[in-house]
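Hey, quick one: can you model this chain's 3D structure?
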Amino acid sequence: MEKQRILPIQSGLNFRELGGYPTQDGKTIKWRKLLRSGYLSVLKKTDKQFLTDYGLRYDVDLRSDYEILRNPDPTIPEMVHISASVYPFTAHKKMSLKQWWKNIFHKDAHQPSILSDPYQLMVLDQHAQAAFKELFQILLKNDQPNQAVVFHCSAGKDRTGIAAFLVLSALGVDQETIDTDYLLSNQVLFGKMPSLKSASGTKSAAIERMNQARNVNLQSLHLAKQAIDVSYQGMTNYLHEAMNLSDKKLEQLRDLYTE
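Sure thing. Here's the predicted structure for all 259 residues.
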């Protein structure tokens, strides 16, 4: 198959390859091993077949239980679905999504704090960290050739963007390349993001508003990086302490996903 950054999925959202990115030690990420995307619930038969032929074996779903219940991922032959919800954050598990939205996103845009910015919470909150730890465990499990992992949320830009940031960092990709991949969501989604099927009620409205509120911007991603630098004194310590990845496991990841 042709090597393509944006995969030719007709009925999916923001389907992209992470293969081909260079690492700082002179290697590149293998193609057909790491995929990122938005929701999969409307995939057509031809797209499912494409992904089966592509080698997709693991589907790490970063959405909330409610999102999964409303729009479950499809069954694809040989693919295993893993739920690893990033939301709700630990401090907000008993809060309605309407109140959660109000508290998390109502902030001074010029002076975001670690206590209020959702991107910083995604890398610091224990519940969110558990989701990303699960993703890394699946990446380590995907140790056979010609098999791929996809990780996704609803729009494939925020939760998925943070997941890609962590995964690419673990594989030794430099920040400038990570930034470029992160911003690619704006190009892919601009004017093309369909409305998700919605049920009536506050929960649906809050999640859809969150997913469609804005394009991604580097300030948000860099705030997450800043939170890691301040709280863990850098990405290496974060991967060791928050993601439970020893030097041996990081070496194993790089062996599996780079060449």
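One thing worth noting: The longest helix spans residues 126-141.
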